[in-house]
Amino acid sequence: MASVMILDGNSLLYRAFFALPADMATASGQVTNAVFGFTSMLQYMLNEHKPDLLGVTFDRPEPSFRHDMIPDYKAGRAETPDILRQQMSIVRQVVEVLDLPMFEVIGYEADDVLATLATQGAARGDDVIVVTGDRDSYQLVQDSTGDGTGSIRVLYNKRGVSDYALYDEAGIQERTGVHPTIYAQYAAMRGDTSDNLPGVPGVGEKTAAKLINEYGDLDGIFANLDKLTPKLRENMHTYEAQVRQNATATPLVRDVPDVTIEAIHPPNPDIAKATDLFKSLEFRALTGRILDSFTATWGISTGGGGAVPAPTERLTVTLQETFDLAGLDEIAIVGKWHGPEGRSALEGVALAHGEKSWWVPADKLGTVAAQLTSIGKIHAHKTKELLRSLSDHGIDLVFGDKIGIDTAIAGYLLDPADTTYALEELAARYAGIDLRADDAPPAGELDFGGTGEDSVHVSARNAAAVWALVEPMRKAMDARSLTALYEQIERPLIAVLARMEIVGVGVDSLYLKELSQELAAEASKAESEVHDAAGEVFVVNSVPQLRRILFEKLGLKTDKKTKTGYSTDAQSLEKLRGEHPIIEPLLRYREMEKLRSTYGESLIAEVAIDGRIHASFNQTVARTGRLSSDQPNLHNIPVRSEEGRRFRRAFIPREGTQLLVADYNQIELRVIAHLAQDPGLMSAFTSGADVHTETAKRVF
Description:
It contains 27 helices and 19 strands.
């Protein structure tokens, strides 16, 4: 049994093209946004799922059998933009030089080829993941039956290059309301405007799911039209032929000729050609990252073509019987948590010095605090999270100059454009160590404090990997002149952020709850006004229902359309102000409901038992070097509206103190003025003039 991943090439290529700006181009003018996005998607798939096998399917330019079946199939679809069409052949070149098996068959769509491969893979016992942005693939999903048949799941691209949802049978049922086996008939009623397959008017996703579940299939529905409401009965009867036609076109073909799963083989990329191709596309950072992903996934040696050698070294770790750090000036340490790092209970820590390793269960940490705090330097992966958890056990490493190399932050400085700084990837890239190697746990009767030997040994090996990474990453930062940045800014900041998270920020919970209730009341009032203006009660948050009210019943129109109809986003509704009494309360409802749910409820949920919010502050997320915040995002508390600003009053100082708000004024421009010694900028700042006005005067 193998894990097999099959990419819907055309679907992902389109998603990549529209996710990234079209001004992404080489110096010669070749637009590369779709190629860059597709390659980034591929890297994400490899990093997140590490499949044993991977293949890519593409559409052919010739008509498919569906065009013969339905002459106007896909008629009216917008022409493929020229700058996307130019990139299609380049994406195929990327797939070819990386030696990923590519499938396309005249007369069939990529979906059909993909369905054939997935069906064959599951039949031989493989676990298949189909990666696509096309919902037609939902019909392929099946769970493993336990009789040797494998599974098929869909990794659906929601937006961008790294926002996906992985669906099994239960996921499809929850997402659509129907089981995958009847999805095609459900879709036949709903229709697909992108394929010019109109559905039944008034039959949206919920109605289609209700009908198909109640009557079993299309035959059952049309046999029971007399049981439907008059309007629905009339529409179903009128559009029966259209639905039947849709039902012949929607099912994917699972037996495309001359397509075999055996053709998917582990890749053997031409590293030199791949490097040259990416160099010509000016994918500087991405070149190393995609090749590193091939290394981490398949153990392929990339021969120094901008990436790292295949990780072959296996760490030898010897767990010690007794805890004795006497005489050690530095040590590597990693934590093991029951859940999210730094935000859940600590199971224990593993320490390493060379090949020696120690495991300390959480309940024994207090007894070794003195030895830990006597060590000069402590190297770690994600030190901040570790400090936050150790403080719960009376070990305060926040103050003092004890932090050595934090491998995650060093990795960020060396490649700030990466998306993840997993220890196993850093170990492979900078030390040639394979942390995926499945070493046996150590023999012996060691006391692991209730934690299993396998789990402890993995932690011990991770600690040893951190130890092994210290020198390579230190040298890499030296070579890139990053040591001063790390030692003077990033490393001291670790302790500051850890302390900020531990202390948290005070919150007036009662005020927050009252504010949330007020917003709920305001939203309810606005919702009633929307219903009055519409002349009926409907679910305001339902886009299909709102679209029906605004654009069918009330006859309003917007300039912006999506695949499913006129847009109901905020920008579109703003343009409709004054055209109907429903718009003002609708916008008001959305604003109140967003504030209540996004800020009111979420902030209340994050208040700890000490009455404070302990958010996380991240050093390795924003590529620009700025901090980011989550759980909750304290950088995103509203400020533009009066209602939004009320949330800021919920944050309160300790008794006898005040909150101080400090903000740099035009910090980036001041840095530029200093570095460039630009007379115009320097004059604007020293004179107190508005720098933008002064710049505009000079330009215009």
